[in-house]
Design goal:
The structure is a single chain. With 462 residues, the protein is of the alpha+beta class. It has three domains: 90 residues, Uridine Diphospho-n-acetylenolpyruvylglucosamine Reductase, domain 2 (2-Layer Sandwich); 111 residues, Uridine Diphospho-n-acetylenolpyruvylglucosamine Reductase, domain 3 (2-Layer Sandwich), CATH 3.30.465.10; 208 residues, Vanillyl-alcohol Oxidase, Chain A, domain 3 (3-Layer(aba) Sandwich). Helices cover 29% and strands 23% of the residues. The chain contains 15 helices and 18 strands. The strands form four sheets. The chain has a seven-stranded antiparallel sheet. Strand 5 and strand 6 form a beta hairpin. Helix 1 packs antiparallel against helix 3 and helix 8 crosses helix 11. The structure holds flavin-adenine dinucleotide.
């Protein structure tokens, strides 16, 4: 492998415009790391591309030498797919250009962009791209897997808002995928992850959003179960303008949480309203009446504040392990299992995230994009989050064991961007009815499975 990577390095040396980082480079130690501290791999070469030509050269050279290649945008793959041991990483972190067309409400952003980069540029024009809730997440991985966040119920998944992709395919060609060109690939890229090439540019629709009403509250004790049940009953008929998410966890060590409650089982909640302010205030009043909060805060915040308010909770380098699934509804037993699990939760940072999709995301037909079935609106995401390596076994085991006890109440399916690195066996489950079509597209554009460090869809064998 070392010899093969040396061949790639030599092939790139004369033509590369960006940086080629080898393990003895002073920047290598920082450059090799990704967001999840559980993933500590050592690629033999990091090709930090400056432009599309660099990406094409990297793909051609690595493909010719048969070197395993990871593609990295923000490096937030929970599963750790944006790095590898011994192979090459195509690192897009120097390609973060964003161009906004205010009148057309469109923007083009480069394949290394973070959500923060896109938000900063689009907000200058009072426009927003519907994406995730942590601004240091990479836009490419998020959009290619689907992408949901505060605006999903109002404006759909991130991938539902893509008009076109430009990408480098496995043979090094630069092609476009949109409703008129390579339309099967356009379908596959909206949910099919990094399987089909390196996306160099996304062309997306924007929406006029500059602020939001935010309600944050914490409930403890018996109110936890009551609140989750009321939330479950309320969300199916709630307006699209509202996104109300819950986190079951230990009450945080925060200034606004009474000392005697910190570290006790709790549910923290964030309700976000985008739209008419009077209707929003009335809606949030109603939500307050549904819970019995020990802590409550309400404010009108800027969209940029909304998009960054969770950033500190998920810092780079900590240890994370996740398991996730969808439910059509949440029965009381399922809620009780989750609430009970808080009594032996091993880390104060770990959360059971509960989200409700529905809205605009649910009005797109399952067959229209590779993302697939949107008919199970409840998303359960078990997000283990801790600091020390010696705590790995206990934390991973807690997540796995809770997942096993919830599995029977989940519908088949999983959001690929919430999968962990040991869930290869769930990729088929993620795509189900769309699998054959995805395999056909994959076989056409990447017949040798060059792009395989992802939730992989293997091509037909030749
Ligand atoms: C802190 C945190 C918060 C999150 N919040 C949300 C959220 O609110 N909503 C949500 O939907 N998801 C969320 N996620 C999940 C997120 O969507 C995935 O982790 C996603 O893969 C991150 O994208 P990235 O570009 O940072 O990942 P990377 O690790 O860089 O890449 C992930 C995958 O995408 C591929 N890839 C990356 N760039 C390209 C490209 N240009 N072309 C082709 N393939 C590429 C990689 O090869 C890899 O397989 C969150 C994750 C984290 C860690």
């Amino acid at each position: 492998m070392k010899e093969a990577t040396n061949d790639v390095y030599r092939a790139l040396l004369e033509q590369f415009h960006g940086q080629l980082l080898l393990p003895d480079d002073p920047q290598y130690e920082t450059a090799r790391r990704i967001w999840n501290g559980m993933v500590a791999r050592r690629p033999a070469l990091i090709a930090r591309c400056a432009d599309v030509a660099d990406i094409q050269a990297s793909v051609r050279a690595a493909s010719a030498a048969n070197v395993p290649t990871a593609v990295r945008c923000g490096g937030h793959s929970l599963a750790g797919f944006s790095t590898c041991d011994g192979g090459m990483v195509i690192d897009l972190s120097n390609m973060r250009q964003v161009a906004v067309d205010r009148d057309a409400r469109r923007c083009r952003f480069a394949g290394g962009s973070l959500l923060a980069t896109v938000d900063a540029a689009t907000q200058q024009h009072g426009l927003a791209f519907p994406a995730g809730v942590v601004s240091h997440t990479g836009a490419s991985g998020l959009v290619l897997g689907g992408g949901f966040g505060w605006l999903t119920r109002l404006h759909g998944l991130s991938s539902d808002n893509v008009e076109g992709f430009t990408l480098v395919t496995a043979d090094g060609s630069l092609i476009r995928a949109n409703s008129k060109e390579n339309d099967d690939l356009f379908w596959a890229l909206r949910g099919g992850g990094g399987n089909f090439g390196v996306v160099t540019e996304f062309d997306v629709r924007l929406h006029p959003v500059t602020s939001a009403l935010l309600l944050e509250a914490v409930c403890t004790g018996d109110d936890i179960s009551d609140l989750v049940r009321r939330w479950r009953d309320f969300m199916p008929d709630s307006p699209d303008n509202l996104r109300w998410s819950l986190s079951l966890r230990l009450a945080p060590d925060a200034a606004n949480v009474p000392i005697e409650l910190r570290g006790r089982p709790a549910v923290t909640q964030a309700a976000v309203w985008v739209g008419d302010l009077k209707q929003g205030e009335d809606c949030l009043d109603h939500l307050v009446s549904l819970c019995n909060p020990v802590v409550i805060a309400r404010k009108n915040i800027s969209f940029l504040t909304l998009q960054t308010m969770a950033d500190q909770e998920f810092p780079h380098g900590r240890r994370y392990y996740t398991k996730s699934g969808y439910c059509k509804t949440l029965d009381n037993d399922t809620i009780d299992i989750m609430v009970q699990s808080l009594f032996n939760i091993p880390s104060p940072m770990t959360q059971i995230e509960l989200a409700y999709l529905g809205g605009a995301a649910a009005r797109v037909d399952a067959a229209d994009t590779a993302f697939g079935d949107r008919s199970s609106p409840f998303v359960i995401n078990l997000l283990g989050n801790w600091s020390e390596e010696f705590e790995d076994a206990e934390n991973v085991s807690w997540v796995r064991s809770l997942f096993q006890s919830l599995r029977h109440s989940m519908t088949p399916g999983v959001y690929i961007n919430f999968m962990s690195g040991d869930e290869d066996d769930r990729v088929l489950e993620a795509y189900r009815e769309r699998w054959e079509r995805l395999v056909t597209v994959k076989s056409h554009y990447d017949p040798d499975n060059f792009f395989r460090l992802n939730q992989n869809i293997p091509p037909q064998t030749k």
